[in-house]
Specification:
Elements: E1 4-6, H1 13-16, H2 25-42, H3 44-55, H4 66-75, H5 78-96, E2 105-108, E3 111-119, E4 122-126, H6 135-148, E5 152-157, H7 167-176, E6 181-183, H8 186-195, E7 205-207, H9 212-225, E8 228-229, E9 237-242, H10 248-259, E10 266-271, H11 274-288, H12 294-302, E11 305-308, H13 312-322, E12 326-330, H14 334-338, E13 346-349, H15 355-360, E14 386-394, H16 396-412, H17 416-435, H18 443-446, H19 449-452, H20 460-463, H21 496-506, E15 513-516, H22 519-530, E16 537-540, H23 547-554, E17 558-561, H24 574-579, E18 585-589, H25 601-610, E19 614-618, E20 640-645, E21 658-661, H26 664-673, H27 681-692, H28 695-716, E22 721-724, E23 731-736, H29 740-749, E24 755-756, E25 766-770, H30 774-787
Parallel strand pairs: 1-11, 4-5, 4-7, 5-6, 7-8, 9-10, 9-12, 10-11, 12-13, 16-17, 16-18, 18-19, 19-20
Antiparallel strand pairs: 2-3, 3-14, 15-21, 20-21, 22-23, 23-25, 24-25
Helix pairs in contact: 2-3, 2-8, 2-9, 4-7, 5-6, 6-7, 8-9, 10-11, 16-17, 21-27, 22-23, 28-30
Domain Aminotransferase class I/classII large: 484-784
Function: Catalyzes the sequential NAD-dependent oxidations of L-histidinol to L-histidinaldehyde and then to L-histidine.
Keywords: Amino-acid biosynthesis, Aminotransferase, Histidine biosynthesis, Metal-binding, NAD, Oxidoreductase, Pyridoxal phosphate, Transferase, Zinc
Amino acid sequence: MIPTFSYPAPATWAGLQQRAATAETATVAGRVRRIFEQVQQQGDQALRALALELDGASLTALQVSPAEFDEAVAVVPAALQAAIRQAYANIKAFHAAQNQPEPVVETMPGVRCWRRAVPVQRVGLYIPGGTAPLFSTLLMLGVPARLAGCPEVVVCSPPQADGRISPVILFVARLLGIDQVVKAGGAQAIAALALGTDTVPAVDKIFGPGNRYVTAAKQLAAAEYGVGIDLPAGPSEVLVIADATANAAFVAADLLSQAEHGADSQVVLLTDSAPLLDRVQAELQTQLATLPRQEVAAQALAASRAILLRDADQMLTYSNQYAPEHLILAVAEPETLAARVTNAGSVFLGHLTPEAVGDYASGTNHTLPTGGYARQYSGVSLDSFVKKITFQTLSRTGLQQLGPVVEAMAEAEGLAAHARAVSIRRAQLGEAGQESAGSSFSLEQLIRPSLRQMQPYSSARDEFEGLAPVMLDANENSLASVGGADFRRYPDPQQRAIKQALAQLKQVSADQIFLGNGSDEAIDLLLRLSCTPGQDAIVLCPPTYGMYEVAARLNDVRVERLPLTPDFQLPADAARLLAGSRAKVLFLCSPNNPTGNLLAREAMEDILNSFNGLVVVDEAYADYADAPSWITRLHEFPNLVVLQTFSKAWGLAGLRLGVAYAAPALISYLNIIKPPYNISASTQQLALQALADAPRLAALLAATLRERTWLSEQLAALPLIEHVFPSDANFLLVRVRTDATAVYQQLQQYGIVVRNRSTQPGCAGCLRITVGTAEENRQVVAALQQIGEVKPAVPEPATFPSEYKN
């Protein structure tokens, strides 16, 4: 039975949360200190003497021999070996994923900082092996040590009475490639690892759990001998939060799984269900009777707690104060409770997740902080076995920009030599250095370093331009054709014919044009070209086109936001706000999607003059606007990129052909990193046909603009419509007087699909309606007229195919 406490006042919780070993701390510390002194004075002799005294083992040699390794591996059952190998694979997979590259951060132009992980050179692993040999702990420590690349790994584990190390521990050591295994346990093993003996090398950092003597020894090693430790890992403990949905047998088994570790282990049950508490107590008696380590577990239970509390909030508060090594959430909604956990070594969610899976094989590490140290410490991970060293380097520009900051701060602290270390270098730079201090756009600095020297993929069609009577250079199938169409040959990878036609139409040079598989590909490649994943950022001006943020997420790029004003314009101080930004790309959609309006050109000019990254002006809808394209300004702004598309005015959305216009140097970089054949042959053929019939575009635009005017006037007259926003695109943003989502759904009952934009910033209550054919526009007006009537009877027009109905 666990001692039970019903509804204790919060003021008494601190006493209930005291670990059983706390009262003996002074006695333990004194004994540990004497052991350190003995090992320091007598070395290996002390280890042999203490092994005989504390473990009952008479040792002739402290280090495990190759023959002992062979004998041990031979006696480990095949089924256990297979289980260990599976656990090894899981633990390795989980910890290998923690090996993430450190980004180089340019904190300001010319100032680059980064970190590099360097393995701890010599580590000691303490593996408990007395009454319960914890071979699983060797997996938990040895796997990350090996993954981190630690050059020397020493294992210490207490010998059995026959002077041997547990065969399973030796099997795991061999699996990990560790051959230094020392027969030493308890505080004396920690002393040997900290101080060094003839057999045991002194290490830089000690890892591993143990009883209160081991914990005290690790703390002494860290405090007085300068040896690093993983964390204060003492006697095992578990806290179970269980509600009325918990299975009493499961809970009892979880409590006993920690109680059997040792008499000084502590288990805690928190519940808000008195019936469950009674059932758990009964289950404990039943299950305890069949445990091989019954006596040990019974002693641990006697010093443990079962506490009845009022509700989940109280239980979680108690748990966070207690800071358990293991926390099991045996409740109906464990994810909700888990989100509020602040102090715990490892958390196990739900009725089907016993703590035992984390002890052995799920993949997470079981070397965890105990004794309340989970308030300050994390469990062991790959990072525990490495040191993170910081590096920095300054260019001429970096020193000139950062130097005055450092000088001012050093002088304020009265540290003149610090200031001089900067000023003497700045003085040496002379006038050339001062000239370079100003901030300006530099394409070479913007391009990711790993891409600056990259060469484009050389395809067969790059090596030989055009066609010849016999084409045997690209491994094509010369026999196949589909439906009479001849697509046997790879397309022109540089799309030269389209670029020449566009260059003539847009009055630019062909080397200022990049063609992408839709504008989306150009957006993605611009981010890949300039933004280091996990390090750099882009700027968006919401509400705006959603694909910019999607591309950022796909490339692991942060998003900074400069929201538009209520009238969907750039803020008056946008250029000033962006001048200091270290973001690499700024997206401006003009005409904007979903609002339809043009952004003020003066504000955009100010940004182009002050922003140090790429300014991408997305003109997908520019053909519908009464304003010149920003393509005409490419020669003025080296950081300007203009996006256009064949999907809107050209009526070729299905072709997926987007265009980027920019400086030739930037275009050449895009051509380097693009896929070799990103534009299909059929797309190129149809795009050339459309460009050859360019005069037809003017007639299509005129018809669309007439319909836009008509639709805008009709919508504005409807009682349902509160406001129709001015548009320079082929769509209208409208705000309805009622629930926009409801109107959106009602339109679908009429077979009409529009875009619900009511959740976008500044667009509450708004729908976006594309200008359609004359018939389509009249249908949407009629439908909105009926929806706006009081208690409308929604018809189901027979003219709409059934597949369009909800």
